[in-house]
Amino acid sequence: MKKFIVIRLLQSIGPLFILSMVIFGLVRVAGDPAVLLIPEDATKEVYEYIRAELGLDKPVYIQYWFFLTQALQGDLGKSIRSKKPVTESIIETLPNSLKLVLVSLLFTIIGSIPLGVWAAVKKDTWVDTTARVIAGLGQSLPTFWVGLLLIEIFVVQLEILPAQGMGSWEHYLMPAFCIGIFLMAGIVRLLRSSMLEVLDSEYIRLARIKGVSERAIIWKHALGNSVLSVLSFGGMDVAIVVTGAILVETGFAWPGVGG
């Protein structure tokens, strides 16, 4: 087990190194950071001072080395917007992001498991068709478009939900739906396929012959074995939710890491 963990850690060094280079390069492509930190009427002397202070007057490979070594020490620099250390800002806003992620995961579980099971049990009926359409839409519609659509319907037209911020339970509804809809769609499709395979297995037929109730067969025996395939993708699912949360927080002005 220890050998496996060590091998996995060593394998992750390469991708992380490449990712750090991509992030460093994207920041430089976005423009000169010094220009963003000084007022428009600042003199050239101020501009040169800021560049020297940030190490931007050094060669690119030196800048990258400073960026990498500081990141490994937990120093992510200062935020251009808040002027505070990025690490401090993350620590302050992370609890809000975690709250939203947990609510979205709860929404995903409550919505996907019954829908996936029902679609498998009612195979080739309108229920199955509806579940597959919902799953297809959930995986194809862009998250930002879903957010704009929700704002248009529930904020602009119906005026029943708040558009931004974090406060009451109502503030969680639209962001949690946006984060969870993609993940829910994937789980519905995966759970449906797994349930169909399990329901057609020999031990399920044997359980029916023995007189086990259909409810117990579906929700205890079939679901218990089918959900294992869903859990095997748990790590990837959580990564999708966290990534989606950053984008959604920006759209709904949620005071989290991405807000």
**SS-based class:** mainly alpha
Structure annotation, total helices = 11
- The geometry reads as elongated
Low-confidence stretches: none
Strand portion? under 5%
> Over all CA atoms, what is the radius of gyration?
24 Å
Proportion of residues in helical segments? over 70%
Biggest beta sheet summary: none
Terminal Cα span = 39 Å
The run of helices and strands is: HHHHHHHHHHH
The number of distinct β-strands equals 0
- Mean pLDDT comes to 78
What's the arrangement of secondary structure elements?
Elements: H1 2-29, H2 33-37, H3 44-54, H4 60-72, H5 86-121, H6 126-140, H7 143-157, H8 170-199, H9 202-209, H10 214-231, H11 234-251
Helix pairs in contact: 5-6, 5-8, 5-11, 6-8, 7-8, 7-11, 8-10, 8-11
How would you describe this structure to a colleague?
The chain has 259 residues and is mostly helical. It contains 11 helices and no strands. The longest helix is centred in the middle third of the chain and has 36 residues. The protein is elongated and about 85 Å long. The model has no long low-confidence stretch (mean pLDDT 78).
